[in-house]
Amino acid sequence: MTNDNAAGFATRAIHAGQEFDPTTGAVVPPIYQSSTFVQDGIGGLRGGYEYGRSGNPTRTSLETVLAALEGGDRAFAFASGLAAEDALLRSALRPGDHVVLGNDVYGGTHRLINRIHGEWGIRHTAVDLTDLDAVREALGTPDTKLLWIETPSNPLMKISDIAALAELGHAAGALVLVDNTFASPALQQPLSLGADIVVYSTTKYLGGHSDVIGGAVVLQNGELAKKVGFQQFAAGAIAAPMEAWLTVRGIKTLDVRLQRHSENAQAIAEYLDGHAAVERVYYPGLPSHPGHELAARQMSRFGGMLSIALSGGTDAARHLAESTHVFQLAESLGGVESLIGYPSEMTHASVRGTELEVPGNIVRLSVGLEDVRDLLADLEQALAPAH
Ligand SMILES: *Cc1c(COP(=O)(O)O)cnc(C)c1O
Fold first, then answer.
1. Which of 149, 198, 201, 247 to mutate to test ligand 1, by most ligand atoms within 8 A of the CB atom?
2. What number does CATH give the domain 255-383?
């Protein structure tokens, strides 16, 4: 039953690509920590494995489960989310091509497209993806080959309409990509909404335990999948066996984790909404969020990420970020432990002075799986006026 795409999501997360070890019966497939594979005579490969950059069984097991979760044919696992994005960009684009991307995409994505691929002749336009007219206009730029969507966006949790954007992108002859890192496949399935490509930082919810860096590209079979596979092999930014194994281990609990992340985040968003120290809460699970109805259609839950704008400005935001105890001050997101971040000087420092700059009164929370009353008490003490 293991690779049966008709099985439910949680079943696929636990079983796809995870056959027990045939020689010992070990329930958990071993970590194939090997750089090369013995041949039975020249070219006599066992299971197609030759050298660890071209393929490794542990990486295959991760790629199999990632494709199964997404309803895609193929997944390719990389050493980081940005390595996955880089391989995809080099597969999909040629010098002179133009990319349309959200004006609040992950800062590292903007840096990669602007400063690395920009040097190799890739042009880009950043637009508000919730403004479909602006997107249509940007897509009219000659040689637009890729529309890059991120929803919910980081850190302001804007929700954009994947199905509507996919139609616009395709009408303009562009490929449509979704960075689905914030939602994870447990909450949102972009290929089923019309996207061509999904990319992940598996470092976040897929790994889920803040102990591994990784990334992935998921798509249907075809020319582009061949090119991404070739980039992975020929440029070599592969997921290593230990990293692949840890990610697989994390994925087994993805569904249940995202339920709890979402419940905790909803309770925190409701508590902060209306708190005297808080000017605004950015969480799609709040009915007042401009993307609430769209998110309710497009996602199965609202996720574990939220941001707040502090009424007291930059000082209040910095104070909050440095005053919590259960929420630890660190970059990244999507782990079992709650984290707090100050985007303008942490995750989004690289986009200061660009159209992606984040206001100084914003604090971002990655809500973990702790007891929600401890999380609420932590925020309450950190937001209390100083005496
Ligand atoms: C973290 C992140 C990335 C980059 O992934 P790395 O694993 O850090 O290279 C890309 N997109 C989003 C939305 C992210 O949060």
1. 201
2. 3.90.1150.10
